[in-house]
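Subject: mismatched residue count in predicted assembly?

I count 598 residues in my input, but I want to confirm that the predicted structure covers every chain. Input:
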Amino acid sequence: MRAALALLFAVPSFAQILIVTPHADDYLVCAGGTVAAMIQNGTKAYVVRVTNDEKDAYGISPEEAALRSRAESEEAASVLGVSEVVSLGYSSGELGGVSPTELRDRIIFFVRQYRPQIMFIPNPYTHYDADLDHYYVGSAAEEARWAAGLKNFQPPHALVQLAPHLAPELFYYSLPLDPERHTPESTPTFVAQPKIVDITTTFNRKLRAVRALKTRNRALALDIRQRLSNRGKRLPLLDPINDESLDRLAEIRLLGLAQLAGKSNEWPLAEEFFYAGSDYQIPSAYRK
Amino acid sequence: MRTHLGATACLVAFCCAALLAEKLPHGHVPPGKVFLVILPHHDDHTWEYAFGGLIAKFVDAGYTGYYVRVTNDEKDGSFGWAENNIVNHREAVEAVRYLGMKEVISLNWRNDHTDSVPLNELRAQLILLIRKYRPDAVMAYHPWGHYDRNPDHRKTAKAVAEAIWAAGNPNFLPEHLGLGLQPHRVPYCYYSQRSDYGRGYRPNIAFELNDSQMERKSKAYWMNRNVRLQPSIAREIRAELARTHQTIPELEGLNDGEATKKLQEWRMYWISAKRGQENGVKYAEVFDFIDEFDDVPGLKDYIEQNAVTK
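Triage response: the counts match. Full output below for your records.
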């Protein structure tokens, strides 16, 4: 048992991380500060972007949106310091029609290729997130993390020297939509627990990365403007919508989210997760 | 005497609990003109955990309402599949019109088989309806409710959750735009589910019902006669009471059909009075309300504080 434990924890801390994200912006908005801090500490980060973000646009075709979003997702990731972005190209908003097993198996490949110490995945248990792409990707990634460690999943991988690999640490990320999200799960072991991470030193880098997603930010601004217009209202900040107003909107949004997450720990700026770390793998009672 | 004291103590404890329990904020009908009720079955809008009173309240405020029935209800009632579908649809039209809504739009998916329906296909139908009717509010089952064993409830709720925002995005089903349909995002949603189904449904708002709204809610419920007025309902209750030598005086002299109607009326008044007592009014219904811009945490406060009239 001790030998197995020593092997498990011999991997250098923060060697590499794998981030699975449904859309270009999800991991940046929910986990960008934490990822940036890990990268600053010498971690190599890899991103698997599952969809093509074709729906995140107003006034341009899905094809044009997908093209622009791909370039912008790579630019944003490079601002954060991510080593590589792999885009799987599934139509965004349509993952309900994709086989969960297919999606899982695609992610298994990258877990075995990048062999991460830590994985960041969308939290499939989040309530009130009406974009079900987040749920589908979170479920597939959670299953892939576990299955990638078992050789009988996708055995042909062995033929191309992709060995089984289990990422020992897992961060579940999501927008803070669920009023019950700070309620701990039922037991302190074997299930993920709430975790707040201070991002004060990396907030600006996260903000610069999010600002690079110009097509997505413009879509959000147009969406807000349209919804307010339906109510006979307007937001002076968005008169007009230009680079300056989009940058300011991104800053207000990220500050609001970071302050919301920091409230419970009295940090000025934070991100919130559900975290499954070493205690999740092997409870401390067994690690004597 | 001891029984009397026990009952009094229970009553006092119940009243204290009701007084001490945290009351929900009271809701108001939001500004707007149109609402959609999107539910799987013909009678889902009227039962004790549903929207009968809220529908009456919206209609009283001048709204126009449409009822979207997702399945064909072939399993519910005393007939075979085809006839149940026809009878239940007819009674749904009567109940919906009695509540003041305009019409029933029936999607006719097979009852209790919607687990096999592709979510994106059902979502596409709802997106079209949302773009056509442009509702300011939607009432539906709770998309994140737990322990709801009915597959139609789960599938419909999930499809609603996505359709209400996807309908506002022009890159979803762009072919609609060629017909002159414009994107439309639903600003206000009211979700409900059985409140005894565990975590996943915690109401955050209460709506007070007046006597007229309460009466319409109660009657609309039993107007779904094929399901709600089966004489066997009263027959079984009477048989159970008879086994313990009890009776309900108010039901004496009524046949089983009439007694069932009375029981169903009491049921609706009982749950509405219970929700009312919990929230400091005579009658109430409770819901999980999703407000406009709840989907953009971090920006919602800024928008509310800085939006101005055009």
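The longest helix of chain B spans residues 256-278. Marking this ticket as 'not a bug'.
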